Task: inverse folding
């Protein structure tokens, strides 16, 4: 029994050492206290289905959620993003939506499956290759949502906001 417990403890420690940086990044609300980043010139990313997406979007605010498929906490945030996108579509609200996977090792197929699972298939998803978007918008934690206005300024930043909050913040940003 002692050997089994020692083996489990060793495996748990090894797992923590390997996942430690991701766990530290995924936990906490560090981003909520950061000042708003000014994006400057537009950034263009390619979604996993090949669509070119500019941030800021041409003349409209955009809700951007930073996630990883392996982040359990991110499920609710991406689900809220999907619900906000569906609501905006129903109301005719002119706003953009983007889910940004912060783990470049996750495949297009894995991300598509995740987006379907959380009922957010209508939201474009992109992989943050080289941490370009997370650095540009000063995002250091998974499960962070930012709203970028039409001028590229971050007007809202939170961890896992609900769909109503996302919609309200997009409206404040000019949607």
Result:
């Amino acid at each position: 029994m002692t050997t089994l417990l020692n083996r489990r403890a060793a495996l748990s420690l090894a797992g923590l050492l390997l996942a430690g940086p991701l766990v530290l990044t995924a936990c906490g609300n560090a981003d909520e206290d950061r000042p708003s980043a000014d994006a400057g010139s537009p950034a263009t990313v390619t979604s996993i289905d090949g669509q070119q997406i500019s941030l800021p979007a041409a003349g409209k605010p955009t809700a951007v959620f930073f996630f990883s498929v392996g982040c359990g906490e991110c499920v609710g945030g991406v689900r809220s993003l999907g619900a906000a996108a569906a609501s905006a579509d129903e109301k005719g609200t002119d706003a953009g939506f983007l889910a940004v996977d912060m783990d470049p090792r996750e495949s297009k197929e894995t991300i598509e499956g995740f987006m379907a699972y959380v009922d957010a298939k209508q939201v474009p998803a992109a992989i943050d290759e080289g941490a370009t978007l997370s650095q540009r918008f000063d995002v250091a934690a998974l499960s962070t949502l930012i709203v970028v206005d039409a001028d590229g300024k971050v007007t809202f930043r939170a961890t896992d906001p609900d769909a109503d909050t996302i919609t309200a913040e997009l409206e404040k940003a000019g949607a």
Q: What stands out?
A: The helical segments are 2-26, 74-91, 108-117, 132-136, 163-172. Residues 15 and 21 are 11 Å apart (CA to CA). DSSP finds five helices and seven strands in the chain. The mean pLDDT is 81.
